[in-house]
Write a structure and sequence with these properties.
Jelly Rolls; globular
């Protein structure tokens, strides 16, 4: 069995940002020469998720509104009380809401690969979901198979 791991990087621009990474993942698969197996897509961040859904702009707006409604920015989050934390490194962002939103999403997706292509339907896309943007981000893509 062959295993290839590659990091893809990109920038996000808004606090909640759905970044379609489907084509970038497919390029990693093609470069791996794996024809049959699995691809694992993993977000190594505590304020970013990975999801599969339909890439339709109004639906993506609905997802953003839902996440904001369920975990509002203006709520009070203990994580944001920097002056009370000792020995915890922080980048200074008040982003307790971003960490809480991430609990609603997965950090990874595993997708079957057949004949060198992800087995997604014609309306499915893979998204890196930014919950604390804009930032420079990375996603780990691991292709396994033969």
């Amino acid at each position: 069995m062959k295993t290839v791991t590659q990091m893809i990087t990109f920038s996000t621009t808004t606090s909640i940002d759905f970044v379609d990474i489907t084509q970038r993942i497919q390029e990693v698969i093609e470069g791996s020469a794996v024809r049959q197996g699995l691809v694992i897509v993993f977000a190594p961040h505590t304020t970013m998720g990975v999801v599969i859904n339909h890439n339709e702009p109004m639906l993506l707006q609905d997802f953003s509104r839902m996440l904001t409604r369920l975990v509002p920015v203006e709520d009070q989050y203990s994580h944001d009380l920097f002056e009370l934390r000792r020995g915890v490194k922080t980048d200074g962002r008040s982003n307790g809401h971003s960490h809480c939103k991430r609990l609603l999403l997965s950090t990874s997706e595993t997708i079957p690969v057949e004949r060198g292509r992800m087995q997604l339907s014609n309306i499915q896309s893979v998204f890196a979901v930014e919950l604390d943007g804009g930032r420079e981000r990375s996603i780990v893509v691991t292709v396994m198979g033969q």
